[in-house]
């Protein structure tokens, strides 16, 4: 089956109408549009009402039988950042599928392979067909998608309760094992050519891209079939990961850290700028006595006009206190990335990590150091643990005792942690002493507000001393930075 003609379904709907797609009320094009825009918002993509209307207007000037034109129209009006595109594409394939089981049946159509019957062909024949698709130089496109749908129909079905099926990608990929075709394909593509050179590298990259396309096509069809059984809304919530800027710090993985670094650096620059503005506006400057007296001569010695000395350029100083315990391990990775970025924006940054005691970790983040290597050294060399159980009170007391002079009237104090202290004394007076000696003090907490003061959390008590903000993701950090002015 070709991709052309997919969106036009019964009752003006898309992808075969509501009956074949696991949900009532989505059969009309308007219903599909509203549901799709709502699903984008549900997974965290920022889509305003005006942008939804722009997308609706775009549908009136394109050929709705061209599915990729429909995708492009929605993407142009609704997607703001490249990082949002994967989630958008996943939801688009759910709401506007290229085929539906109810409308087209289980057979994939002629594009799945000339005279090959995917239902009865032997496995070696199917692998030969897949090999031909993977070797295509210009990308297999519709043909591969149709073949993937046929393979899901044949291998991806697992019986469940009567009248229902479970669908999985793994049995399809296990049966066809596309990675094991690499050596064979390279031998065919490079017949007579020298191995190990540029030609092999180019061919290998092309084949690897096509393997990923096939896997994506299988996953897309599996999601589509599950949506037909369970409803689009249900599968949409679990199929799409939130955008990076809305991904909870407590759930980030190591793979997210590289992308997170790109988000943190501009925020660090803005944070430094905001704190500088607060410092500049906090005082009018010192009286310039000489200029004031000189100006008073024209008014008989009466100083009607006062003159102030210009303020010296100032970059704020920063002290960062980071909870690096296991309970906030992912958040700790983020805070250390932020600390590393902040060192380049402030005149003086001193960073301290703690679990149940505290140690200065500034030395691990010297300019030019690799941040991953710095984190590795920090975990093995820094003295932040006595008994291994988080103790904010003891950490604050030790900080005041050993590093109290780090906080002064030019210092902004930034505390990063979940305020969970294993029911130990919170040392509120010590924290009050430290924060009162700083120019500004802020606390960023990675837990949702509705979890504050549950269990061993003393968030409200600490928040009464140092203003505490929920900071679960990059978007909330950006909002905090913007509100500092």
Describe this structure in a few short sentences.
This protein is an alpha/beta fold and 485 residues long.
Mean pLDDT: 79
Total beta strand runs? 8
Report on the biggest sheet. 6 strands, mixed
Shape: elongated
* Percent of residues in helices: 40-55%
Quickly give the structural class: alpha/beta
Output the number of helix runs.
19
Strand fraction equals 5-15%
Strand order of the biggest β-sheet: 5-4-3-6-7-8
Domain count: the total is: 2
Low-confidence stretches: 1-26, 103-113
Rg value: 30 Å
First CA to last CA: what distance? Answer: 57 Å
Q: Give the oligomeric state.
A: single chain
* Element pattern in H and E: HHHHHHHEEHHHHHHEHEEHHEHEHEH
Account of the 3D structure:
With 485 residues, the chain is of the alpha/beta class. Helix content is 48%, strand content 8%. The chain is built from 19 helices and 8 strands. The chain has helices at residues 29-42, 49-58, 67-78, 85-95, 101-104, 123-134, 142-155, 170-176, 182-189, 198-230, 232-239, 254-282, 289-296, 329-342, 371-381, 392-403, 428-436, 459-463, 474-483; strands spanning 157-159, 165-167, 317-323, 348-354, 358-360, 411-416, 440-445, 468-470. The strands form 2 sheets. A 6-stranded mixed β-sheet has the order 5-4-3-6-7-8. Strands 1-2 form a two-stranded antiparallel ribbon. α17 links the parallel β6 (411-416) and β7 (440-445).
């Amino acid at each position: 089956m070709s991709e052309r003609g997919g969106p036009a379904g019964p009752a003006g709907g898309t992808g075969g109408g509501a009956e074949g797609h696991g949900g009532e009320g989505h059969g009309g094009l308007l219903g599909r549009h509203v549901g799709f825009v709502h699903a984008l918002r549900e997974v965290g993509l920022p889509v305003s009402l005006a942008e939804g209307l722009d997308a609706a207007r775009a549908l009136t000037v394109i050929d709705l039988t061209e599915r990729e034109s429909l995708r492009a129209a929605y993407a142009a009006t609704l997607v703001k950042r490249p990082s949002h595109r994967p989630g958008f594409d996943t939801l688009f394939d759910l709401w506007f599928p290229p085929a539906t089981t109810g409308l087209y049946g289980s057979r994939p159509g002629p594009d799945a392979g000339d005279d090959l019957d995917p239902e009865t062909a032997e496995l070696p024949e199917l692998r030969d067909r897949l090999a031909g698709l993977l070797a295509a130089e210009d990308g297999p496109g519709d043909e591969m998608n149709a073949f993937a749908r046929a393979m899901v129909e044949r291998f991806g079905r697992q019986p469940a309760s009567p009248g229902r099926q479970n669908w999985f990608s793994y049995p399809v990929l296990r049966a066809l094992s596309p990675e094991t075709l690499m050596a064979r394909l390279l031998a065919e593509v490079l017949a007579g050519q020298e191995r190990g050179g540029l030609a092999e590298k180019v061919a290998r990259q092309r084949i690897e891209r096509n393997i990923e396309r096939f896997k994506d096509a299988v996953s897309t069809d599996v999601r589509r079939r599950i949506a037909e059984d369970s409803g689009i809304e249900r599968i949409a919530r679990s199929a799409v990961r939130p955008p990076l800027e809305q991904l909870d710090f407590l759930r980030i993985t190591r793979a997210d850290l590289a992308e997170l670094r790109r988000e943190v650096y501009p925020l660090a620059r803005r944070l430094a700028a905001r704190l500088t503005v607060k410092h500049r506006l906090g005082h009018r400057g010192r009286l310039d006595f000489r200029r004031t007296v000189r100006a008073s001569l024209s008014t008989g010695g009466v100083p009607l006009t006062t003159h102030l000395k210009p303020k010296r350029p100032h970059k704020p100083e920063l002290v960062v206190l980071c909870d690096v315990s296991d309970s906030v391990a992912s958040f700790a990775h983020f805070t250390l990335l932020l600390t590393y970025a902040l060192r380049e924006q402030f005149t003086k940054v001193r960073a301290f990590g703690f679990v149940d005691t505290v140690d200065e970790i500034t030395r691990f983040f010297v300019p030019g150091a690799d941040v991953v290597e710095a984190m590795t050294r920090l975990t093995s060399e820094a003295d932040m643990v006595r008994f291994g159980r988080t103790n904010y009170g003891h950490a604050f007391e030790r900080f005041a005792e050993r590093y109290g002079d780090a906080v002064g009237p030019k210092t902004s104090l930034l505390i990063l942690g979940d305020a969970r202290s294993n029911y130990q004394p919170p040392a509120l007076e010590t924290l009050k002493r430290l924060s009162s000696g700083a120019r500004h003090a802020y606390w960023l907490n990675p837990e949702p507000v509705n979890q504050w003061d549950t269990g061993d959390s003393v968030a409200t008590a600490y928040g009464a001393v140092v203003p505490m903000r929920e900071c679960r993701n990059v978007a909330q950090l950006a909002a905090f930075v913007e509100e500092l002015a």
